[in-house]
């Protein structure tokens, strides 16, 4: 296909008329499609239906004769921590299980840091001008936590193997910089996985703040889409080897393993950080929902059971990614109207459109019945300097809806690119 930039103005005009007609025809179908949130589909949730009757009437004694119905067990059941140890890449005794949302744990951890400080410094973060580095494109809810809690954000571009580490290393020379958001595997939304080199540099870099923390949100650890299962290094071990044993806070959950509305969330870190975390948690709860922890153990059994379950998830999800990517390729390939990566896991496809067209694409799509995540959502403060990045979430809609949405998105992307190139204001 000819790139738009190489077309003369007459060809561009006739291409515009053709794509505009395609757009009007798509709009006339009166569809209602939603590609906004990375939620599991009902079929994915059905995979965990057997959990709804677990642990079962009479099955409430956990290891060591612990009565899971009762208060207590602030750090979670040992068998649950063991079950998820490989997924989280932390020893079971350095894992805390609590709540059903890892975002709640991230939020709580930052609130505690702001009010009480973290190990390696007694000063509460709120005494300074706490600042986080935010790899972009990134997860809008990470950025929302920072905005909500008054933490300044500095965007850092992603490179294909994690954030631009030269820039990160420069920025952490400022003692106000207290943290960095990282989604190290199948990142939200670019799908990229951090390289060993990136992880090593994060673990070893010299930070002006002694209490700097990596928020290692390993939300997609077992969420593979292909046979090429990505691996990431053991960040706790890398930090310890580099002489920064307390640097990483790991977060994870079973939201997209079992049931997001009734999952388990995890915090893992160095023994000192775990002690600090539990000291704070003590004031918030007398103990987590241990029946749910037992339910997960009875259902998934062990790491092999978890992997087999995730394979079933992949069988439902992968065809939707495939359909989306095939349609993007068929309609946009070679036009120069957009670029995208083929993710090997996770929940998203990032579409990088022609600079200055993302907002236009979202509004064209809306008019045609397709809800897209707002342009800018993948940047701190919702501001994409280049107005080009769109996050597509194909898991929730049915396969036929994903196909229809992909077609519509491709048409909108092409139309916006042609308008921009031809100087047509739609
Ligand atoms: N972190 C990332 C990177 C995510 O993409 C998501 C879900 N979209 C979450 C956290 C939310 O996790 P939870 O349900 O455990 O709060």
UniProtKB/TrEMBL annotation:
GO molecular function term, any single one: L-aspartate:2-oxoglutarate aminotransferase activity
Cited CDD domains: AAT_like
Transferase among keywords: yes
UniProt keyword list: Aminotransferase, Transferase
Matches recorded under Pfam families: Asp_aminotransf
Coiled-coil positions: none
Protein name per Swiss-Prot or TrEMBL: Aminotransferase
Organism of derivation: Methylobacterium gnaphalii
